[in-house]
Please model this.
Amino acid sequence: MKLVLKQAVENLGEAGDVVTVRDGYGRNFLIPQGLGLVATPGNLKMAAERKKYATVRLSETLKNAQELAERLNATSVTISVNANDDGKIFGTVTNANVTEALLEKGIEVDRKKVSIENVKSLGEHTATVSLMTNVKATVKVWVVKA
Model:
């Protein structure tokens, strides 16, 4: 059975792709879930139009992500934490702390896209923000005693 995918399906294809699947998989799962349509000439034409517009949106999204990455690379944030006299902090600095500090600077990112190594001491650390699959930015994180 040939189907046009309406959404990306893991291990199968992206939205707008024409795929060949077994009849039961297409009829019992993909079509009822709204993930695919039968590959009729009208649906193939619609898929081609959607793919054309998707490439335009993707290029705009990529441009915005690169601009945000440049802003993030030039940004450093300071996070105040409780620490002992030796510089060892109580607890740890998490991606939620970094996201909150970025939000105070006017930069909004999803906390799930921020990764930071296990921070257990005061000083300078680096957080990585994955904006898209091939667009990443680094943010300097200064951990200081409150």
The chain has three helices and nine strands. The chain has two domains: 2-62, 69-145. The mean pLDDT is 92. Helices lie at 23-30, 41-73, 95-104.
